[in-house]
Design brief:
Radius of gyration of chain A: 22 Å
Structural class of chain B: alpha/beta
Oligomer: heterodimer
Distance between the termini of chain B: 42 Å
Shape of chain B: globular
CATH class of the largest domain in chain B: Alpha Beta
Radius of gyration of chain B: 21 Å
Largest sheet of chain B: 8 strands, mixed
Number of helices of chain A: 12
Distance between the termini of chain A: 25 Å
Strand order of the largest sheet of chain B: 6-7-8-3-9-10-12-11
Number of strands of chain B: 12
C-alpha cells in the first residue's frame, strides 16, 4: 500500500519518467507474450531472403542468416527482462545481505566491507570480464556475473543506511523489548530500507542492460544463438555499411530502454530524497 | 532484598589511549511500588546508568567495568543473551527520551505492541491484538480500536509517548525505566504522561526509575532521589528529606536555577562553569571548580560518601554548610 503511494508520488507530474515507465511495461509485456506477437521464429534461417531491407513482412529487415530482425528484437526483450530482473535479484540479495550484516556486526563488517572496497576498485566491465572468463557463456552465468558486480555498490549503500538506522532509538527500543539479532535485522531494519532498495534496483536494472550488451558485443555474454540486443549488434556489426538497419534497431532499443530505466530510477530516487524534490522540475 | 540493586557500578569509555571513567561507584536500590528519580545535568551519566541496566551498552565503546546490577535476585551482568532477552520488555521495560523516533516508522503501532506481546507471552494474534487495544485505552489513546492501525507519523508526540508506555507496560513489567520520558513533550502533555505513570504504578505496583534533569518533575513523582554529578551520586535521600535539607552545593545550585513564576528576578541564578569533560583529570572533588564552598581540601581530596543522616547520604566535605 505504502509502496503504491510512493510509486504514484514518484511519477506525478513527470511526463518523461512516466513515458519511460510505460516503455518498460511494454518491454515486459512483449517479453511475456513474445511467441504470440513475433511474426516469425527468431531462429528460423532463410538463405534466400538475406539482408532484406525493412518493409513488409520483415518490419526490421532480415540479418545475414535471413532471420527476421523484428522477431529477434521481440525475443531480445525477453533477455532484457531476464538479465535485468536476475541481476537485480542477485545484486540486492548478495549486496544487501553483506551490507546489512557488515553494518550490524561491526567486527565482521570491517573485514567484509574492505573486501567490497577491493572489488569496487576494479572497473565494473573489467570485473565482469574476469568473472565471465572463469565461467562459461550462459544466461545464468551472465546474470550471476552482472549481479555480483553490482552487489558491491548495493552493499556499500545498504551498509551506510543500516549503520544509520542502527543508531535510531526505535532499534534500541526493539533491543529493549527483547528482540534478537535476526529479528532486529530483518523485521525492524529491512522494512525501512525498502524504498532505497527499490531505487537501487531500478538503477541496477539499467546498468545491467549496458553491461550485458557490452559483454554480448565482446562475445563474452549470452551464448551467440540466444537472440539478445547485444548479440544482434555483435553479429551484424560487419554489415554496418550494407545493412545499417541491423544495428540501428537493436541499438535504438538498448538506448531507449536504458534511458527509460534511468528516468524511472531518477524519479524514484528523487521521491525518496526530499532535497531533490522541488528544485529539479519536469523530468 | 530490593527489586533492583545497583552496586558500585562503574562505566568507562574506551578511547584509543585509555579508559575514561564516566560512571563511578554508583549504587542505589529500588523496591516494588517505589519511584527513584535520578537528576543531573547533561553528561553526568544518568542515561548511561539506565542503558547499563537495560543491557544496551553491548558492543559500543562504552563498557561496564565494575560493580553489579541485580534484578529480582538475578545478576543482570552475568545473564546469557537468551536469558537477557527473555527479561527485556517482559519483566523490565524502558521508555525512551525521544517519542518521535522510538517507534519504527514502517509498522502500524498495533503491530509493534502485538509483536512485543507475542515475543514474551504465548498469545494468539487475535488475543494479542485485543490486549493491545486494551493497553492503548489504558494509556488513554482515544478510539483505541481505530488508532491501533495508525502509523507512528499519524500521531502526535504525546500520543507516541503514550504508545511507548503502552508497549513498555504490555507484559506487566516489575521495573520500568523512564529516561527523560517527558523532556521532548510540552508541559501539559508532560503532566498527563507523569500522571499516567503514577496511576499505572499504583495499579500494578511497578517499580520506576525516572531519569530527568527537571527537579520539579522529580519532586512531584518520586519517592527517593539520587543527584548525579559527573558519574557519581552527589546526594541521595528520600524526596522529602532531600528537599527539606539540601546538603550538596550542587543540589542547591540545581534548585536555584529553576525559574519561579511568582518571583521577580532579573537574572536567573545558574551554576557557574560546566561539567568537566572526561579528559580533564580531577584529583579532588569533581564539583570543586564550580563550587562556592571550595577550599584547598576540596581541590586535593575527593570526598567520600557519608551518611549525613539515616537515609540521606552525600559526597561533600562541607555537607549542609552555607556560604558564610
Amino acid at each position: 500500500m505504502n509502496t503504491l503511494i510512493f510509486l504514484r508520488d514518484a511519477f506525478a507530474g513527470r511526463k518523461l519518467a512516466t513515458a519511460g515507465f510505460l516503455w518498460l511495461c511494454l518491454i515486459v509485456v512483449a517479453a511475456i507474450i513474445a511467441p504470440l506477437v513475433a511474426p516469425f521464429d527468431p531462429l528460423e534461417i532463410d538463405p534466400v531472403g538475406r539482408l532484406t531491407e525493412p518493409g513488409w513482412p520483415n518490419l526490421f529487415g532480415t540479418d545475414h542468416f535471413g532471420r527476421d530482425t523484428f522477431s529477434r528484437a521481440i525475443y531480445g526483450a525477453r533477455m532484457t527482462v531476464i538479465i535485468g530482473v536476475g541481476s537485480v535479484l542477485v545484486a540486492l540479495f548478495c549486496g544487501g545481505l553483506i551490507g546489512m550484516i557488515s553494518a550490524y556486526f561491526t567486527r565482521l563488517g570491517h573485514f567484509l566491507m574492505r573486501a567490497v572496497d577491493v572489488l569496487m576498485a576494479f572497473p565494473a566491465l573489467l570485473m565482469a570480464l574476469v568473472l565471465i572468463t572463469l565461467l562459461e557463456r550462459s544466461v545464468v552465468n551472465t546474470v550471476l556475473v552482472i549481479g555480483i558486480v553490482y552487489a558491491t555498490t548495493t552493499a556499500r549503500i545498504l551498509f551506510g543506511m543500516t549503520l544509520k538506522l542502527k543508531g535510531e532509538t526505535f532499534i534500541d527500543a526493539a533491543v529493549c523489548s527483547g528482540a534478537g539479532n535476526s529479528s532486529i535485522l530483518f523485521r525492524h531494519i529491512l522494512p525501512n530500507l525498502l524504498s532505497p532498495l527499490l531505487v537501487q534496483a531500478s538503477f541496477i536494472f539499467a546498468f545491467a542492460q549496458l553491461q550485458a550488451a557490452a559483454l554480448d558485443f565482446l562475445g563474452l555474454g549470452l551464448p551467440p544463438e540466444v537472440p539478445s540486443w547485444g548479440n544482434m549488434l555483435s553479429e551484424e556489426r560487419i554489415y554496418i555499411t550494407r545493412a545499417p538497419w541491423l544495428l540501428i534497431y537493436p541499438g535504438m532499443l538498448i538506448v531507449v530502454s536504458v534511458f527509460s530505466m534511468n528516468l524511472v530510477g531518477d524519479a524514484l530516487r528523487d521521491s525518496i530524497d526530499p532535497r531533490f524534490k522541488d528544485d529539479i522540475a519536469g523530468v | 532484598m530490593a527489586l533492583l540493586e545497583v552496586e558500585n557500578l562503574e562505566i568507562a569509555v574506551s578511547t584509543q589511549r585509555n579508559l575514561l571513567p564516566v560512571v563511578q561507584g554508583v549504587s542505589f536500590t529500588v523496591d516494588e511500588n517505589e519511584t527513584l528519580g535520578i537528576v543531573g545535568e547533561s553528561g553526568c551519566g544518568k542515561s548511561l546508568t539506565s542503558l547499563a541496566i537495560m543491557g544496551l551498552l553491548g558492543t559500543s565503546p562504552v563498557r561496564i567495568t565494575g560493580g553489579s546490577i541485580h534484578f529480582d535476585g538475578m545478576n543482570l551482568l552475568a545473564l546469557s543473551e537468551r536469558e537477557r532477552r527473555a527479561i527485556m520488555g517482559n519483566r523490565m521495560a524502558m521508555i525512551f527520551q525521544e517519542p518521535m523516533t522510538s517507534l519504527n516508522p514502517v509498522y502500524r503501532i498495533g503491530d509493534q505492541i502485538v509483536e512485543n506481546l507475542r515475543q514474551h507471552q504465548n498469545l494468539s494474534h487475535a488475543a494479542a491484538r485485543d490486549r493491545s487495544v486494551e493497553l492503548l485505552s489504558l494509556v488513554r489513546i482515544p478510539d483505541p480500536s481505530e488508532r491501533i492501525d495508525s502509523f507512528p507519523h499519524q500521531m502526535s508526540g504525546g500520543q507516541r509517548q503514550r504508545v511507548m508506555i503502552a508497549m513498555a507496560l504490555s507484559c506487566d513489567p516489575k521495573l520500568l525505566i523512564a529516561d527523560e520520558p517527558t523532556t521532548a513533550l510540552d508541559v501539559t502533555v508532560q503532566k498527563e504522561v507523569l500522571d499516567l505513570m503514577a496511576d499505572l504504578q499504583s495499579r500494578m505496583g511497578t517499580a520506576i526509575v525516572l531519569i530527568s534533569h527537571d527537579l520539579g518533575v522529580i519532586a512531584e513523582t518520586c519517592d527517593k532521589v539520587a543527584v548525579m554529578y559527573r558519574g557519581k551520586i552527589a546526594e541521595a535521600a528520600s524526596t522529602a528529606d532531600l528537599f527539606a535539607e539540601l546538603l550538596h552545593p550542587y543540589t542547591r545550585g540545581l534548585l536555584n536555577s529553576i525559574p519561579v513564576v511568582d518571583r521577580d528576578v532579573e537574572w536567573l541564578e545558574a551554576i557557574p562553569g560546566r561539567v568537566p569533560t572526561l579528559e580533564e583529570t580531577l584529583t579532588g572533588c569533581a564539583f570543586q571548580p564550580r563550587c562556592e564552598l571550595a577550599t584547598e581540601l576540596c581541590a586535593c581530596e575527593a570526598p567520600q560518601t557519608t551518611q549525613f543522616k539515616p537515609g540521606h547520604s552525600v559526597q561533600c566535605h562541607f555537607a549542609g554548610q552555607d556560604r558564610s
